[in-house]
């Protein structure tokens, strides 16, 4: 029986980062991974790298370049005649990026001395991990175990996935042609991103969302602007629409749903089911492993990702909190450091969220409606990209930056952006908030000109009525 200081189950953004960090801290580390690519070879990186974050961004970038060439080049004096999209080439480019990055993780494992064990990992009692690969199996013994098994798309009975006509998020990354009519169930991050990809390339896209409210997790002002912009881009967003059933016939699917107007039905060439993700905990824990699950199937952990069994930790999508790659990675680092004896902490209040539509949508901290519900008095400052010289020069003037600060202390409590480079601007806000900055602190800093970051600067100034490049609200 092989013995390790740390055995990590799963090589996604949480698992592979935890394994590398543990090895860097001098711990003998193994990482177990079962995922295989189309060639039947073990591929590292988990959902994010193989069929999630990275490939979707590759397609988002490719489709946006095509959209710009089709709709925006003329304004720059550029003629693009005979424009066409080679979808198989676009998909092949995406696949090559994934291959390069998965190979990169394998190289990092080798450089840091992490032992890769191929197969399905299952936690047994006594911090032992059974690894099954084909007809063979072995048991690894560990001083510490980190469970990072990730998540999988949620399936719904009215729309069973066949990966041909009705697909999940993975299948939507493999289309070999642009569907004429595309349906998307779910107006969340995945649905909006994938719907945007194919809408830019010419698909007629309808997004069917059961909730009556668009992007309820986002700040209301941002959500309202996002719905307006995305609708203008061609996404037909149907809110309060509940799917009742689907019927596939002659390579098309009829979707039946109910909304405020009663029973409806539409026919699509392809249908993407993007209603969320669930933790992968099936066949992960032996009955006597001692690790407990909550009522939703997540592994129960404390603030330091410790399970009910001493020496066994769980991170990422299998535990509470946002299902975000960067959250999983930082949990992996925290756990590895705590195993090595360090008192690492993680600030769960400042985990940025991003939707990679165009314009991007991003936020960190709390929304205005959350703070008002908590009874916190706030001051709010906003700055539109329409007043930004850099955004205007780039033809990216949609959206705004919004900063929310405590009315009494002026401390920044939330940064919300819809617009160009929103993810990068929100990260600037996260850094400021991590160090307890006030809106005045941000307003006193020197921002280079002309930049998109100036919008953050002006929004901070606007919190206290001191914006320079827009008219300030009159105080009541």
Automatic annotation (TrEMBL):
Binds 1 FAD per subunit. This is Dihydrolipoyl dehydrogenase. Belongs to the class-I pyridine nucleotide-disulfide oxidoreductase family. FAD binds at residues 57, 121, 317, 323-326. Keywords: Cytoplasm, Disulfide bond, FAD, Flavoprotein, NAD, Nucleotide-binding, Oxidoreductase, Redox-active center. Residues 351-460 form the Pyridine nucleotide-disulphide oxidoreductase dimerisation domain. It comes from the Bacteria. Its EC number is 1.8.1.4. It is an enzyme of class 1 (oxidoreductase). Signal peptide: none annotated. It catalyses: N(6)-[(R)-dihydrolipoyl]-L-lysyl-[protein] + NAD(+) = N(6)-[(R)-lipoyl]-L-lysyl-[protein] + NADH + H(+). Homodimer. Its main location: cytoplasm. The active site is at residue 449. Pfam families: Pyr_redox_2, Pyr_redox_dim. Disulfide bonds join 48-53. GO terms for cellular component: cytoplasm. Its cofactor is FAD.
């Amino acid at each position: 029986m092989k013995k390790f200081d740390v055995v990590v189950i799963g090589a996604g953004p949480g698992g592979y980062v935890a394994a590398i960090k543990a090895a860097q801290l001098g711990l003998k580390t193994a990482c177990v991974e079962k995922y295989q690519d189309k060639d039947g070879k073990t591929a590292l990186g988990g959902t994010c790298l193989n069929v999630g974050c990275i490939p979707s961004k590759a397609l988002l970038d490719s489709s946006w370049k095509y959209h710009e060439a089709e709709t925006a080049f003329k304004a720059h004096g550029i003629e693009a005649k005979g424009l066409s999209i080679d979808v198989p080439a676009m998909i092949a480019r995406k696949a090559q990026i994934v291959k390069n990055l998965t190979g990169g993780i394998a190289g990092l494992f080798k450089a840091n001395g992490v032992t890769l064990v191929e197969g399905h990992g299952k936690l047994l009692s006594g911090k032992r991990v059974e690894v099954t690969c084909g007809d063979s199996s072995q048991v690894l013994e560990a001083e510490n175990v980190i469970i990072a098994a990730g998540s999988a798309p949620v399936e719904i009975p009215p729309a069973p996935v066949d990966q041909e006509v009705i697909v999940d998020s993975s299948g939507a990354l493999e289309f070999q042609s642009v569907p004429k009519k595309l349906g998307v169930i779910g107006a969340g991050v995945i649905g909006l991103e994938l719907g945007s990809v194919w809408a830019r390339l010419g698909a007629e896209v309808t997004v069917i969302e059961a909730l009556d409210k668009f992007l309820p997790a986002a700040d209301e002002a941002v959500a309202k602007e996002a719905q307006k912009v995305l609708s203008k881009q061609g996404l037909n967003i149907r809110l309060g629409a509940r799917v009742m059933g689907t019927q596939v016939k002659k390579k098309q699917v009829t979707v039946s749903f109910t909304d405020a107007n009663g029973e409806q039905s539409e026919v699509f060439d392809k249908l993407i089911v993007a209603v969320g993700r669930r933790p992968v905990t099936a066949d992960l824990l032996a009955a006597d492993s001692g690790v407990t699950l909550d009522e939703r199937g997540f592994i129960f952990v404390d603030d330091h990702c410790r399970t009910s069994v001493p020496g066994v930790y769980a991170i990422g999508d299998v535990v509470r909190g946002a299902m975000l790659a960067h959250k999983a990675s930082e949990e992996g680092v925290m756990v590895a450091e705590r195993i090595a004896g360090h008192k690492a902490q993680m600030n769960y209040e400042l985990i940025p969220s991003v939707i990679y539509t165009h314009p991007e949508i991003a936020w960190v901290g709390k929304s205005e409606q959350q703070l008002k519900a908590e009874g916190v008095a706030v001051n709010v400052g906003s700055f539109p990209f329409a007043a930004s010289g850099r955004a205007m020069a780039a033809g990216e003037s949609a959206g705004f930056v919004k900063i929310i600060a405590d009315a009494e202390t002026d401390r920044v409590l939330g940064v919300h952006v819809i617009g160009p480079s929103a993810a990068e601007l929100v990260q600037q806000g996260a850094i400021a908030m991590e160090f307890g900055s006030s809106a005045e602190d941000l307003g006193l800093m020197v921002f280079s000109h002309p930049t998109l970051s100036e919008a953050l600067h002006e929004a901070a100034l606007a919190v206290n009525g001191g914006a320079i490049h827009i008219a300030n609200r009159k105080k009541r």
